[in-house]
Amino acid sequence: MQGSSARSAGIAAGLVAALAFATSGPVVKPLLAAGWSPGAAIVVRLTIGAVLLAGPAVWALRGRWSALRTDWATVVGLGLLGVAGASTLYFFAVDRLPVAVALLVEYTGPLLLLLWAWARTGRTPARATLVGAALAMGGLVLVLDVTGSLDLDPLGLLFAGGAAVGNAAYFALTARPISLPPVSLAGAAMAVGAVVVAVLAAVGVLPVEAPDVRVDVLGAQVHWAVPLLVVGAVPTAFAYAVSAVSVRLLGERLASFLALSEVLLAVLLAWVLLGEQPLLWQAAGAVLVVLGVALVRAGADSDVRRGAAPPPAVDVAAAPGAPAAPGGVRATDLGPDGGGEVTRRA
Hints:
Blueprint: H1 3-22, H2 24-33, H3 38-61, H4 66-70, H5 72-94, H6 99-106, H7 109-121, H8 127-143, H9 154-174, H10 182-202, E1 214-217, E2 220-223, H11 225-250, H12 252-258, H13 261-274, H14 280-305, E3 314-315, E4 329-330
Parallel strand pairs: 3-4
Antiparallel strand pairs: 1-2
């Protein structure tokens, strides 16, 4: 796959994953309104996702079980922080904060990654990256409609901050140039996350209420299992698998800012499916987010060349036969499953 084609594929995969993630709210909302607790929905969602991803994850490994043993720390870290941690802490946050505020804090994850790379390397990101980050986050404030007088609970903000760390960890760990194919990494981490949230539910940390009810989905009364099967398949198994491919191709910085499009798509889906029409300033915010992501994309190559950002696990800029950037491999070195034998950073 040529460099520009690989990056285009990564962006396309990221947008598809964002759209899939965005379906979660409209599908789960009627279930929660019918009496299910968020904790119960999270446990079932991750369990279904882990089961559905098991087959593709094993197929992508193709007998290379040693990769799981070699990369176990990344798998466990991703499952704990990026899957179970982010989901659980966000649930605790929305129990104490307005949903928009909790989302806004959680989606500072890309900024945390940018600031961490800046502090660790001592190299200032490109001007396009900084301006793009500011525009994207400002646009996100408008899209989430965080207005009015807010009484913010300190513990809720702490939980939301923890969710932001989990969000950042998801991209940082998924972007690592390891030997596990992206789908296998997503599947293994999903299994770890499902076990963790099940344990939290069993010991009472996550309240679980799962009444046997019928719910209203798109005007039809369906059994509670229907929305859960949808949310386990689309915004969980499918979304995490496709997102892992995108992050591996784009790197943590561009992929994390591209993921902000999930919020825009969620607003659009709520409009189409639930009749929640967006406001004018939300549309203006969406434009700012798109412009911001475009600027981050423009500054990405410069940041990688100057060592101000980690390179993608797959070097999408390298031409066939050219040496890969430090820490990555050429896109042309990938196998047919998109995983390849990705070499480690030195």
